[in-house]
Each structure stands twice: as structure tokens, then as C-alpha cells.
């Protein structure tokens, strides 16, 4: 419904002063209602629009190429929330060209991230990333991107594992991260950690009532050995298992999560995203015909073109199948990230002046991402899906 025209009180024969005030009051009320309705309905409308774009031949936000752009990065490595393990420039990485690339989708443009616009549209609301350290990568990126736009605006930060919060006090906006690598619960039972494939109760407590949720999971499901996998037994349908096919377990856990989303967010104002699987770059044969190394060490440029020679992750096929038919928006960053073999911390996850940082290391970080860096693009796409 169009707003009532306040000029009627000036140019018409409006004789009752009370009617003028009533007209102005209704205008304000309608504007406020429109603002709230706009946020509540905007996501669903544009999720459908962007999904249609992504499935069309003319525009696909997640299919394209990386092009050089010297206006990047959008913030500097002195951003206070960046983990030292992700701060490649501070840790002595000598090259910086990996910071100068912009994602160019096929047939459309990604709007440049605007931190002030983000805060204005999210005023009074909470965004929460939930998942593993790749989700933390993205959370830190978003905080830095917003902070660069309002460097003098007061903030408040809290880190109390597993919940990390960052508040932009002037706008009432909270950008949070909740560490839950499997999404489903892990409980202690008789001194053993039990991965509950059929249950999300404890983990989900911080998620309730959040305005925007962005989930990720995947990498921890393939870790093996008690020291790295995070659990001793799995429980499914009342039975305990020492182990099972990890892809089967992953699907069981993800379907439990999808059921939680349907039960707790459908019919509410909560917007739900799922971040596609972030790729690894430990096998140079996937991007080189004659690899000179065993990992991502020394890689300084993206892969040209739009396709990656390596395999598409089986976990992504599970994710796509589970999310299909739900209200969740898939931020499908997998392939575009596969093209960025150059953007990992590699040996620069620690200061190079201190051991064991050196070019002969056998276990460089080819799974996380430098900040500033690739997760900034993830957040540009997140911003596009949320508001445009």
C-alpha cells in the first residue's frame, strides 16, 4: 500500500489539524512496518531470484573466473580479530598478488561489499557462523570487512570457546561464531566422547533466536585416529559404533541438522545459509601436469579458467542432496575456491622468523585461508544473497 501523502496537509483543504498529525503518524508507522517486513521477506524473494540466476545460462554467481583487481584487499592484516595462523602477511609471506583478485561470475556482477550498508540493514540483529575453523575463517573475514567501513565505531568483543562474539555497539549488530565442527552433539559417556548422529540439543542452544545463521561442516568427518577425530564412538538409532563409513555418518549427521532447521526456523524470521565445502590443496597433480611439490607451498597465482581438474568432493554431493527442498540457501563456494591454490597460509601460518616455519615443512596449512584473502569473496557472495 502506498504511503499517505503528507503534502495533502499543505496543499489540500485539510482543515482539521488532528488529521494532519494522523496522516504523518500513519506514514511513519507504515515506513517502520515496511522496514521490518523488508528484512523478513527480502531474503526469501532474493534467495529465489539468485537461485534462479545460478541455475540459468546467463548468470551463475558461483561459476566464473578470477580476475586481477588492484582495488583489493578490502582491509589490512592489522585487523584485530584475525588469528595469527591466518595472518599470512604479518607472518612474513613475501608475495601479495594473491590479495589482488576479484571473483567475476559468468554473466553477472557481484556487488562490492559495503560495510556501512551491511550494518544499516542489519541494525539490531545478530549473525552467527556455526561450524569448524573454516567457519571461523569466514567470521573473522566478515568482522574485518565491516570494521574497515566504520573504524571509529565502538565495538565489544568476547572469546569464550565455543562462542565468540563481536558487537558493533552503535548499530546493535552482533557478528558471532559458534564452534561446532560436526553440528550434531558430542557427549561424554563413561569417559568416552560419543558423536550423537541423531541429536542436536546442547549445540543448538546458542542458535535459537538468531536472525541469520550460516553453517558449515565437513572436514572433521574425515579425520581418523582418536587424537584428531574428536570422538571415540558414534551413536546412531540407539546403537554405538566404533566407526562406520564416514560419508554415511556425514549424511546421517547432516540430515539431523536439516531436521533441526526445519523444526526451529521454518515460519520464523531466521535466515539460514550453508557454506559449501572449502577445498584442500595437498595434491598438485590436480592443477599441474608435472607437480614440483607435494602441496600448496610456493603457489602464488589462481588457476586460470573456470574448471578444476581435481575431483568434486563427495561430501558436496551429500550436502546438495540434503539441502535440496529445504529453505536453506547454499553458498556454493567449493569450485571457485578450488581455483585458489595460491590463497592458503601454507608455511606462513606462523611467523617465519620462528621455527618450525620453513619451506621444507611436510605439513603446511593447505586447508585454511589467509586473511585478508579468499573468505572475503565468500562474504561478498553472502552479502549479495542476503540483501540484493
From TrEMBL:
Signal peptide: 1-33
The entry's keywords: Membrane, Signal, Signal-anchor, Transmembrane, Transmembrane helix
Domain Trichome birefringence-like N-terminal: 58-109
Mode of membrane association: Single-pass membrane protein
Source species, domain of life: Eukaryota
Cited InterPro entries: TBL, TBL_C, TBL_N
Cellular component annotations (GO), alphabetically ordered: Golgi apparatus; membrane
Membrane recorded as keyword: yes
Localization (cell): Membrane
Pfam families in the cross-refs: PC-Esterase, PMR5N
GO molecular function: O-acetyltransferase activity
Primary subcellular site in the record, as a coarse category: membrane
Ranges where the Trichome birefringence-like C-terminal domain occurs: 110-384
Coiled-coil positions: none
Family membership: Belongs to the PC-esterase family. TBL subfamily.
PANTHER family recorded: PROTEIN PMR5, PROTEIN TRICHOME BIREFRINGENCE-LIKE 9-RELATED
Name of the protein in question: Trichome birefringence-like N-terminal domain-containing protein
Source organism: Coptis chinensis
